[in-house]
Backbone:
């Protein structure tokens, strides 16, 4: 279905990169649950030899990834971390990486516990001011790793400004686009070289698949990553590929509602007398509101807040009292989730370290789902009061 050359975003989520099934015209690509493909003569096949290398269901998903991110090539992996791992395998011992300092914990763990011992050096810095990046660049620097908006404080980093620096020094710029999704921001259009996703979150969208994605717009870089994908083998299965492809088809309508509900929740919390601070890039008092407005189409479904008095136990009580929001890790599904970073995702970071980056004891993170916003607000209201 490449009947239209320049599809708009909502059309792309449904049709981008998709072909009708040649066998029976199935509208959805079949789940090709197969490891191998018959050959008529050695090497005589229809483009598929072995499912680690290539699988038609996975390829349909990879084409959808490429389409929605305005890339030319997409790659699917068994998890978001497997996708990041593939990017790091582009590097060699001695190479240096400059990364955001408030990074997804799993990315930080992969960088510091696995790749550091293979001789790769990481600088975790504030990218509030993109020029700060330049102070850390030397002849060994190869990669800038950006996550925006960040987790759980929803800081927004200027991708275009980062791209200017990466181009000037001929570095790769990779952007973890998990929180924003291509509905809100298109890092490749802003000058990034690689877009990464935990498709486990908004792309899948239904809290039922763990998966990762990479998207690029350069043939040579794509070939290197395909080589790593096949050589290291961290691929995802056809069933999971099917589910994420299905998820992507409603990405635009889900994101629209996530943003609408998050706005209502953020506004409600902002007026609540017991709430100290609300973190949502759409609020005018958010420190990066200006760049968020320039770079993003809307402000996303993630909202964090702290309570007055910054009481650890009180925050735990609030999340325990919630009834519509489920107390759970992860994000980006249709159902609303709540988390308490200090006791859950960030518990392993000492309190003093946590608080240095603004991650207070009373901080609660919400992944605002697509239920009725009145019910979400009523739930928060009974839990907070
Ligand atoms: C969840 C997440 C990851 C890791 O993805 P997995 O699919 O859990 O491996 C990476 N980055 C961000 C921003 C995430 O939220």
Residues:
């Amino acid at each position: 279905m490449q009947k239209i050359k320049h599809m708009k975003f909502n059309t792309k989520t449904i049709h981008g990169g998709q072909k009708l099934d040649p066998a029976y015209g199935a509208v959805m690509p079949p789940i090709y649950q197969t490891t191998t493909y018959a050959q008529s003569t050695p090497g005589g096949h229809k483009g598929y030899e072995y499912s680690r290398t290539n699988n038609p269901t996975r390829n349909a998903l990879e084409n959808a990834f490429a389409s929605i991110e305005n890339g030319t090539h997409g790659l699917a992996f068994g998890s978001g971390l497997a996708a990041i791992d593939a990017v790091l395998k582009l590097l060699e011992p001695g190479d240096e990486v400059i990364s955001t300092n408030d990074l997804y914990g799993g990315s930080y763990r992969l960088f510091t516990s696995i790749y550091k011992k293979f001789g790769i050096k990481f600088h975790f810095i504030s990218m509030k001011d993109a020029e700060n990046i330049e102070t850390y660049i030397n002849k060994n620097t190869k990669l800038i790793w950006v996550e925006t908006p960040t987790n759980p404080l929803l800081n927004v980093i200027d991708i275009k400004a980062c791209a200017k620096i990466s181009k000037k020094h001929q570095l790769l710029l990779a952007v973890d686009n998990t929180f924003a999704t291509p509905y809100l921001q298109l890092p490749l259009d802003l000058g990034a070289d690689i877009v990464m996703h935990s498709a486990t979150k908004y792309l899948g969208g239904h809290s039922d698949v763990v998966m990762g994605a990479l998207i690029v717009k350069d043939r040579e870089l794509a070939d290197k990553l395909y080589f790593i994908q096949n050589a290291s083998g961290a691929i995802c299965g056809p069933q999971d590929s099917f589910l994420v492809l299905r998820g992507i088809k409603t990405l635009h309508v889900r994101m629209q509602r996530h943003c609408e509900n998050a706005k209502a929740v953020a506004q409600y919390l902002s007026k609540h007398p017991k709430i100290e601070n609300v973190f949502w890039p759409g609020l005018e008092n958010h420190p990066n509101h200006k760049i968020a407005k320039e770079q993003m189409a809307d402000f996303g479904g993630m909202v964090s807040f702290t309570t007055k008095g910054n009481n650890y136990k009180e925050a735990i009580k609030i999340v325990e009292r919630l009834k519509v929001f489920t107390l759970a890790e992860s994000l980006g599904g249709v159902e609303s989730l709540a988390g308490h970073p200090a006791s859950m995702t960030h518990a392993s970071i000492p309190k003093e370290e946590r608080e240095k980056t603004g991650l207070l004891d009373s901080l609660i993170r919400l992944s605002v789902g697509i239920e009725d916003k009145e019910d979400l607000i009523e739930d928060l209201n009974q839990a907070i009061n």
The first strand starts at residue 73 and ends at 77. The first helix runs from residue 9 to 15.
